[in-house]
Specification:
The chain is of the alpha/beta class and about 325 residues long. It has twelve helices and twelve strands. The protein has helices at about 1-15, 40-45, 55-70, 85-90, 95-100, 130-135, 145-160, 225-235, 250-260, 275-290, 310-315, 320-330; strands at about 20-25, 50, 70-75, 110-115, 140, 165-170, 210, 215-220, 240-245, 245-250, 265-270, 300. The chain has a seven-stranded mixed sheet with strand order 2-1-3-4-6-5-10, with helices on both faces. It has a five-stranded mixed sheet with strand order 7-9-8-11-12, sandwiched between helices. Helix 1 (about 1-15) packs parallel to helix 7 and helix 9 packs across helix 10.
Length: about 325
């Protein structure tokens, strides 16, 4: 996925001279996860450059550049560090189109590694996506594989509005399914690890059914897509697994079609339970599929605590917890 993200920026920078990449350590060093490695050498220091350690400054500068006609793709080194930039994102970037009656847009992309599973503790493991889905004017994307990551990132860079692009860091090197006791499977052995060269896009706002089934619908995104697939396989349940890919805009049609068919639903996300994005999904399922439901909708999520370093695998929603939720809705 690292290579896919890098390729997306490379393709976009080659296609459009207005695309610029900047953030902490993204230039000479190539980023803490090496997602921008080689871009400064190829495109020069005016198009790929390092910034001071100031997330508010990074995003504020990107907004000004966007108003001037550039297309910044900036990196926040970890999603946990985005909070100082929250004012710029919510009060400025998200509102420019509305406030200017369409005279100005804000074509920026804010990339950031998100989620846990790497023993990063409470300041390198957070999943803040719900804080952005509540903001009108932002788009929010969470890819689950390299193929989608490249296509969605190119689409985000070409989008005229601000896009929050959250990259599950536990998926950078392989499709992690929550079985932490097993060796990591590389993307080279996965179908979605095959990423075409050159330009292609995936529509923002379109979910994908990763596993078809008729007994229960499992709705997930990011790392939890692979956990959900593993849980369905381990439990031997005919589950349909939906990869949202885009949280805002949300593909409600795919959700409703699936839940109407199965009559049962489990929603899985890594972020804390209370006010997590899963709550929004559950509300929509209840509103649109109430008369088709045969059991209450169940959520599986992180605890309502700071991310615990010492108890990571209890906090992290794994196949065991998802499997128990599947059994619960099937027995209801």
């Amino acid at each position: 996925m690292i290579e896919a993200v890098r390729s997306a920026m490379d393709v976009s920078m080659a296609k459009d001279d207005n695309v610029v990449v900047f953030g902490e350590d993204v230039g000479y060093f190539g980023g803490v996860f090496r997602c921008t490695q080689g871009l400064q050498a190829k495109y020069g220091r005016t198009r790929c450059f390092d910034t001071p350690i100031s997330e508010s400054g990074i995003v504020g500068t990107a907004i000004g550049m966007a108003a001037y006609g550039l297309k910044p793709c900036v990196e926040i080194q970890f999603a946990d560090y985005v909070y100082p930039a929250y004012d710029q994102l919510t009060q400025e970037a998200a509102r420019i189109r509305y406030r200017s009656n369409g005279d100005f847009t804000c074509p920026i992309v804010v990339r950031m590694p998100t989620g846990g599973g790497i023993f990063g503790g409470q300041t390198h493991s957070q999943s803040p996506e719900a804080l952005f889905t509540h903001v009108c004017g932002l788009k929010v994307i969470v890819p689950s594989n390299p193929y989608d990551a490249k296509g969605l990132l190119i689409a985000a860079i070409e989008d005229p509005d601000p896009v929050m692009f959250l990259e599950p860091k536990r998926l950078y090197n392989g499709p992690f399914d929550g079985h932490h006791e097993r060796p990591v499977t590389p993307w080279s052995k996965h179908d979605l690890g095959e990423v075409p060269d050159g330009h292609y896009t995936i529509p923002i706002g379109k979910a994908e059914v990763r596993r078809e089934g008729s007994a229960v619908t499992v709705i997930a995104y990011g790392t939890m897509v692979h956990v959900a697939l593993a849980a369905a396989e381990d439990a031997g349940i005919d589950a349909e697994v939906i990869d949202l890919r885009s949280l805002l805009p949300l593909d409600l049609d795919t959700i409703v079609k699936s839940v109407t068919k199965t009559g049962r639903c489990v929603v899985v996300h890594e972020a804390t339970l209370t006010s997590g994005f899963g709550a929004e999904v559950v509300s929509l399922v209840q509103e649109h599929c109430f008369y088709h439901l045969e059991a209450p909708v169940v959520r599986v999520a992180g605890w309502d605590t700071p991310y615990p370093h010492a108890q990571e695998w209890d906090y992290f929603p794994g196949p065991g917890r998802v499997g128990r939720a599947l059994a619960e809705v099937m027995e209801a």
